Amino acid sequence: MKLSRVLVFAAHPDDETIGVGGTICRLHKEGATVRVIVFSAGGGGVPSGKEEIYDEESVESIRVDELDKVSKLLGFEYRVLGVKEVINRRSIIKKLVSEIRDFKPNLVFTHSPNDSHHLHRAVSECTTEACWHSMTRAYGYLGEPWRVDAVFFYEVFDLLPNPTLLVDVTSTFDMKLRAIGLYSSQIEVFPGIIGYVKALAQVRGFFIDTSYAEAFTQSSNPIIWRDRCEVYPRQEVCTYV
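Request: output the structure for the sequence above.
Response:
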């Protein structure tokens, strides 16, 4: 799998690391340029009992600072859109089409459409639709059409039932754990997160006979798909080792 440009969409800072952190770091080490587009800075991520200490604006500032440190560690560039809720869907999709056509990614990672968090689902739906619009001649004033080779959904806390891609991240897993540790504000919110991430990666790795792996499911949208089955098999689990 030779990828030069990879785009990751995340609802909040830390989602990209929980779901794709090992893969991001691996792709960066293998020469790919990775960009992460974050919708919301996550002002609601306040530990229980500390609501009076932190207002949303200060929490957002803390989390963006953490994101900046993580980006340097894992090797990605990032943008924060400042979208706390998807209210004007058309406006958001136009913004995403512009991002896709500007960056020209081979591959896109985004949230699962079956995620329990409403913003995670909204991000999944909007980014998948934006990938489709991006390849058409719609919104011509937003740049030349660009066709993404494939879109993959990642898991955060709702596990993917039938992954179609398992990526061996054994070589970068320590970096992923370090990155999660840099999101110190959120470890108070999810105190068991490091143990969870490690256990899930071990389970995913078991199925491809490696120590740690990350799991993804390919979007079934046939309009987004480009005929490159040797890279992204659609009918069976593909392993990237």
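The first strand starts at residue 5 and ends at 10.
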